[in-house]
Predict the 3D structure of the following.
Amino acid sequence: MIYCPHAGRLGVSIGSASPVRWLLHLAGRFLLVPPSTMWYNPSTGSCQSRVRRTETLKMSGFRCPFCGMIMSVDHSTRRASFFDFDGKVGAVFYEHKPFLEINIYRCPNDSCQKETVIALGQNGYIDGKTVLIYPPSNAIRFPHYVPKAIRQDYEEACSISDQSPKASATLARRCLQGMIRDFWGIKKNRLVDEIADLQGKIPASQWAAIDALRKIGNIGAHMEKDVNTIIDVDPGEAERLIMLIELLVDKWYVARHEETTLLENIVADSESKGPAKHF
């Protein structure tokens, strides 16, 4: 039996369900989870990326949430099916009848090949929502050299940012504290004091962003509290905190790794060629 979230009671059994009912059951939390920020909307050609999270980008590609590769959207990378309650919908109904669109994207990257599943309500179906079914969240897959505890807190914060902004913000604040302690070696009793110690150690633009966050609503008002204290925030505040973490991971961990790798390669190339010969 399926529990109907609209009527508040059990409905039909899965065994007698139509194809669309089966798909909704397979999606699990499909009707219960608010729409997540999408990588790509095939209906509009728009990509809403929280990787560079400040604007909607017009693009003809789709960014794989697993490896970050931007792929072209064509029959080799995307499959789409259309359903309503009675089964598969034909093209003749597209402009008149509400229906569910299921999109599956397969990454062409040989080292990835993973699939992303996105559902869209068309013509008012499921209130026109767009839902990321798989992977569970649109969190960036940070590289392995970012400490595991930081990655775990960040990914969990992303996965619950819609359902529970308060819990998401709590995890994100803990993630921010972990980054400051790990990357900069600053350890104090309160996050607000650790942030204050960053001034002069990081570029002015990064400091301005962190300092601005301290002035945003309840996040700023409660920076002096323990990072594990749950505070009341709205979804926008939790989202901005997640955006800041993504920016700082890129500017701190990723930039350091890329610089170290480049310098090591230059030294290795120089040593392999031996001393310069003068004629």
The CA atoms of residues 94 and 180 lie 51 Å apart. The helical segments are 19-26, 148-159, 165-184, 191-198, 204-213, 217-221, 235-273. The longest strand covers residues 99-106. The mean pLDDT is 75.
